[in-house]
Protein 1
Amino acid sequence: MKFIAREGRDRGDVKLYALSTCVWCGKVKKLLADLGVKHEFIDVDELSGKQQTAIREQLDAIDPDWRFPCVVIDGGRRCICGYKEKDIREALGL
Amino acid sequence: MSEQDRPGGDITEEQVEALVARLHKQTQAGGYYLNPDEEFTRILVRSLMKNQARYGYQACPCRLAAGEKLEDLDIICPCDYRDADLERYGACYCALYVSAAAARGERTVSSIPERRPRARQDRPQFKQPAATEQAAVPALPYPVWRCRVCGYLCAREEPPGVCPVCKAKKDRFERFM
Ligand code: SF4
């Protein structure tokens, strides 16, 4: 399972679970890039079925109502689903 | 546009434009509207084409498809949830389709909650009608079929190949009465 790393300001462990085909996911990718925050992202639809299941189980444990795009901060301290610019900025203290 | 914003890199802009034009025509005839943000709509249409190529059907771009048609039947575009979301939020989950007000620019669209049931057995293609719902149906000369996408009803031996209102395919119909 390969997350793609993006360098930037360290605001904790920031992971974005996304789909390659989803515009809202694209907007969150762009937002994180524009904010210049260090993060990792993964396009879950590009993974094999087994890897997708593993990711689904991870997310289920963090937030049973998760959906894409899903930003997980510090292993689940915060979990923001959907393109919610204000919440993402606020969670990152930006 | 970076690679990140362009799903389905091998699909040409002309192919995307052609499908956008076809969808515009189809949807307007049925009283539906595509998102007036052309860039936004083009990315989603490209995504639909990418899903068509890899799954064999146009699975919703903003949901994780299982890759099996029956599992994904409720999220083949237009999905079973579109009309309720248009009504409630002025846009479908992906915001490919918007309400008339949003199409005129009188209402902005945003990322909305997910309406698709989490539990597989609660999804429309698997849900068993309650026993009481099946009772007391009068004898009819023809069965009545309902389009799960838009609610269109027709009384005939078989559902139509394509819904005349929303263009959903035959497999999106259910026996209504
Ligand atoms: S109608 Fe909208 S939410 Fe439903 S499948 Fe199509 S793009 Fe996705």
Note: The interface with chain B takes residues 19-26, 29-30, 44-45, 49, 52, 56, 64-65, 67-68, 82-84 of chain A (CB under 8 Å).
Protein 2
Amino acid sequence: MAEPARAKPKPTPETQHFWDGTQAGELRLQRCDACANVYFPPRPFCPSCASRKVSVFKASGKGKLYSYVINHRPAAPGFTPPYAIAVVELDEGPRMMSNIIDCPQTPEALELDMKLEVAFEKLDDKITLPLFRPAKG
Amino acid sequence: MRRNQVAVVGAAETTELGVIPNMSQIQLHADAALNAIADAGLKLSDIDGIATAVETPQQIAHYLGITPTWVDGTSVGGCSFMLHVRHAAAAIEAGLCKTVLITHAESGKSMIGKLPRSTPPDSLNGQFEAPFGVYGPPSMFPIPVLRYMKTYGITHEQIAMVAVAQREWAAKNPRAMMKDPITVADVLNSRMIAYPFRLLQCCLVTDGGGALILTSADRAKDFPKKPVYILGTGESVETPMVSQMETFNSSRAFKVAGPTAFKEAGITHKDVNHLMIYDAFAHLPLFGLGDLGFMPHEETGKFIADGNTRPGGKLPLNTNGGGLSYMHSGMYGMYALQESVRQMRGIAPAQVKDAKISVCHGVGGMFAASGTIIFTNER
Ligand SMILES: [Zn+2]
């Protein structure tokens, strides 16, 4: 029997560019052409000024650890507890939920404001997730 | 909204609280509703307005045999009932209806006749939170806590004291689920759920319900029970995704709902005799004290740790024991409202002596929504 898999996102017309980006190894954000606001999650207008003139761009993939929990129970399907559920503050401003890899899942190792960089984890031929690891150097 | 134009004239919880394996969720709604109608000395046919959440108003109206002229199905999580009170007060004042029934019930423990909650994979939560292992409120609601602690210098021991103080209140409430005294060490040694939170910092999971009946203040004096007036109200929403809150140092929804209610009531924080802050998890009273303006966030942890909110303290908080110790069927806001009404009627098991103003503050989802109701027993 197959192991229970982690919840898999299903893109919509408004988010497809983001998931195409992760498949191509890019973290893609959107910037408003009118007011320069950078925002997430994806939508085809600026949530700050309502302009529909927005552009997709490749983000740096760098950020820092804003906050997290280390989940013990109940564990989500496809996860082995304890595992951290983190919110990463990207250098461009927006925050996103993710997991921290290549790092012990302990309060001692997971220091708030530690520098992180994006890493891509392929789930299948259609979906690659943006995860984060401690930044090198 | 004008002050003291609408009053609570009926209030009751389900006959039983806790584990109720012999009732479905809609029957729990009906049990609470019938108790509240009896409390108000009314007949079902007197009800011309209905509000409920999760279950639809048509479901509950039909099950009870009510034909309303005003309906509210606002469903924004556990504070939905605070919003119902606010909307009902406005509707009564506007003449849309005369007598409103608000019901809540949840078969949260026994799961009888309760639809499972699900997150579609193409929703924003399904795409941008679910894949990262969130699984139920304990894995999501505490996500802001570590940032809040770092920003304001709050300690694990201070947050543990929330659970300890509320257990002291619960001990005075015969209907509370958990009444045995606990210490900070007990809290910090209880089973880890989602670091930094342990079992005793997470709400209970129970079955139960409650209902309220509101009418105009002018009619309220003819009812059998002491009227409890609506002095001020506020509401807001922020985001269904905890990761997308504007900041983890505060709740934007709290900061809109709370101050709106205080302004409407025309009171200051010193006027508050009794306070309820929806505590699905132990950090919520800290966020509430700060965002409602009782004190700067930096002082919230120390304020609770120093005993100011426990029995005998200067700001009695969550006097039924709260979601941590009284009961929590999934949408606790109704039970917070019930305790405020009991305190204003002067009949609470842990009655605050001479209390005249009660503030009741609710949260919905993971800081997704908020509603605040300020009650008084003086007109
Ligand atoms: Zn803009």
Note: Residues A 32, 34-35, 37, 46, 48-49, 51 surround zinc ion (CB under 6 Å).
